[in-house]
Write a structure and sequence with these properties.
Layout (H helix, E strand, L loop, with lengths): L6 E4 L8 E10 L5 E9 L3 E8 L2 E8 L1 E3 L6 E5 L2 E9 L2 E8 L3 E8 L2 E10 L13 E10 L5 E7 L6 E6 L2 E7 L1 E2 L7 E3 L7 E9 L2 E8 L3 E8 L2 E8 L2 H14 L8 E10 H12 L2 E5 L5 E10 H11 L2 E6 L2 E6 H21 L3 E6 L5 H13 L15 E5 L4 E6 L1 H14 L5 E5 L2 E4 L3 E14 L5 E4 L5 E3 L4 E2 L6 E2 L10 E3 L7 E9 L2 E13 L2 E5 L2 E5 L4 E14 L5 E18 L5 E8 L1
Parallel strand pairs: 2-6, 12-16, 23-26
Antiparallel strand pairs: 1-23, 2-3, 3-11, 4-5, 4-22, 5-9, 7-8, 8-9, 10-11, 12-13, 13-21, 14-15, 15-19, 17-18, 18-19, 20-21, 22-24, 25-26, 27-29, 28-29, 30-41, 31-40, 32-33, 32-37, 32-39, 33-34, 35-36, 38-39, 42-43, 43-44
């Protein structure tokens, strides 16, 4: 299926017109109010009005009309109105009113005249203004709690067939009743928190010819509105748990895209989709090209939304898609755009099949040509997206020259360029790590000890006998000696050392120091001994090895020990067993220039 080549460029359209705009004048009063009057010849035109807030502007469209008015801007400079411009294109006349701020407005069309009345004071938002021609009167605003805990707001009017609009806003709902007035007694704020329903506050007020009822709602909710006789019933219910979860997912999905266009307000009933696209083209100041098979009508009410979001909503509603090129947007049915893009892809494939082949030599400096050849071939073999998914086309080939480490590629020029870029990215020097180890003979013994010996020797009862510490064994001082018990001469053995406490260091190599004191009849002997010993080591080898990033390296030193092993035939064979010290290391260089080492040590 092909896409029709007949396209329509907006807003350059021509259409049959049933009336002419013959004059465009304005008047003002001391309060700053401005009235713009358009005079028409022929049938009364179909009029639509919408406003934008950024920039502040009121746009009035007259369908099926031609304009005989000068298209240049008319300066006003009264109140909020700066100027207005009358344009005609495609069987439609448009009046664009530039404002200094959003203000209230109203319009009437009758008896060959279209009158646009603009208030002289800002109201914070652009809303219709009262003209004293309201057809409906609000008689009561009531609240009731439903059986299932839902809120029911009942607005009673004096007659049927009124028009309302219910719009969601942050924190609640806005209910607008058109061509209606609100008695002063009903202009009030109702607190309904105690009813334990989603609606917390009801605030009724009058905005020009519109009666607005603001509903403050807590939590996630759903609402519906229906008319019963003269009453409008707005029912608000709390969402079930499953619906809340789904709503959160939907909100998160749509919040991914951000819109930045100027905000617009649209309120149309059964308007052609092409007309809506024309309005968006005027607001966005972009060129929009619309396919000739875009048709159909839609009902649209958007309040203060970015124009690019409004465009997405219109496209989704009519199953349309767009492609943007600079300041030109092409809009067509989604299926037509997909078919067109498929045709372009097929044409590109066909063109490549007829494209002549070229040959290029690619020198490889750091990698090996054989490894790169396997990589490029595997990209073609393992691709699941067809011939265009790999690096080589179906007609391409690759070979290597091992002597010069060179790739020889034959393929179309664009494929060769892609392979050259890949080789350039991969053929880089790999960072390396130097690993150093030390083989050491060392002893780990360490000891220290301290000892003491002392003794006291005194004269025993003024005899020829010495005693150690007073009560120790006796010693021969002057031989022969007399028995202390007057039993004659006796032999008393001597002693080699005069130490009563004898706790020296056991090692004979320990150092010692001794001191003796002689005072009167007492001899004091003291000896201290101490020893400290520690082992030492010797570095016998410092081997080094350099390895590439993420490549294992090992250092090994030792001997092979022979041993005999019996064979199955009964003979013996000499086998060798390694007795080595071994270090295996695999480095990983991180992006922040740190090195992680995976070590395996055997001894």
């Amino acid at each position: 299926m092909g896409l029709g080549l007949a396209l329509v460029i907006l807003p350059a359209l021509t259409a049959w017109a049933s009336s002419d705009v013959t004059a465009a004048d304005y008047s003002s009063n001391a309060a700053g109010d401005v009235t713009i009057t358009l005079s028409t010849a022929g049938d009364d035109p179909n009029v639509s009005v919408f406003a934008t807030e950024s920039p502040a502007r009121i746009i009035l469209d007259l369908a099926d009309t031609n304009s005989q008015v000068d298209s240049g801007p008319v300066s006003v400079g009264v109140g909020a109105v700066q100027k207005f411009t009358t344009l005609a294109a495609g069987g439609r006349t448009r009046v664009m009113v530039d404002l200094s701020m959003p203000v209230a407005y109203d319009y009437q069309s009758a008896n060959g005249q279209v009158v646009l009345s603009i208030s002289g004071s800002g109201s914070g938002s652009t809303v219709p203004q009262s003209t004293g021609t309201e057809k409906y009167t609000v008689q009561n605003v009531d609240f009731r709690r439903g059986e299932d805990g839902q809120s029911r707001v009942i607005v009673s009017l004096d007659q049927e067939n009124s028009n309302i609009s219910v719009n969601s806003r942050e924190g609640g709902l806005s209910v607008d009743i058109f061509d209606a007035k609100l008695p002063e007694a009903l202009n009030q704020r109702l607190d309904v928190v105690d009813f334990a329903t989603p609606v917390q506050i009801i605030d009724a007020g009058e905005m020009g010819s519109v009666v607005r009822v603001e509903l403050e709602v807590s939590g996630l909710y759903e609402h519906m509105a229906y008319q019963s006789g003269n009453d409008w019933v707005i029912e608000v219910s709390e969402l079930a748990a499953a619906t809340i979860d789904a709503s959160e997912d939907i909100v998160e999905f749509y919040s991914e895209k951000e819109y930045s266009g100027a905000r617009v307000t649209f309120n149309f009933q059964d308007i052609p989709v092409r007309s809506v696209l024309q309005l968006i083209a005027d607001v966005s100041e972009l060129n929009i090209v619309v396919a000739d098979n875009v048709s159909g009508n839609l009902t649209l009410r958007l309040t203060n939304v970015p124009w690019d979001q409004a465009l997405d909503i219109v496209l989704d509603a009519r199953n349309l898609d767009m492609r943007e090129n600079g300041n030109v947007i092409w809009i067509a049915p989604t299926a037509d755009i997909a078919a067109r893009e498929q045709q372009l892809l097929q044409a590109m494939r066909d063109r490549k099949e007829l494209e002549p082949l070229a040959t290029a030599l690619i020198s490889v400096s750091y990698a090996t040509a054989e490894d790169l050849q396997e990589l490029i071939d595997s990209a073609r073999t393992n691709s699941e997206g067809g011939a265009d998914a790999g690096l080589l086309s179906d007609r391409g080939s690759i070979a290597i020259d091992a002597r010069t480490n060179t790739l020889m590629v034959t393929d179309t020029p664009d494929r060769i360029e892609a392979i050259q870029k890949l080789v350039q990215d991969l053929d880089r020097p790999v960072r390396q790590v130097q690993i150093e180890s030390r083989i050491v003979i060392a002893s780990s013994d360490f000891a220290h000890a301290i000892g003491v010996r002392f003794g006291v020797t005194g004269w025993h009862n003024k005899r020829n006998i010495l005693a150690v510490a007073g009560d120790g064994p006796g010693a021969d001082l002057v031989n022969p000696a007399t028995d202390p018990n007057d039993e004659g001469i006796i032999d008393i053995p001597g002693f080699p050392e005069r130490y009563n406490v004898n706790l020296p260091v056991a090692d004979a190599n320990a150092g010692s120091i001794g001191v003796s004191f002689l005072a009167g009849n007492v001899l004091l002997d003291l000896e201290l001994t101490a020893l400290e010993a520690e082992g030492d080591g010797e570095v016998i080898s410092t081997p080094r090895v350099v390895t590439a990033n993420q490549s294992e390296a090992f250092i090994q030193q030792g001997v092979e020990i022979p041993y005999e092993q019996a064979a199955s035939s009964g003979a013996t064979a000499v086998q060798f067993k390694e007795a080595v010290l071994e270090l295996r290391a695999t480095p990983l260089i991180t992006p922040d220039n740190r090195v992680q080492l995976e070590l395996e040590i055997k001894q």
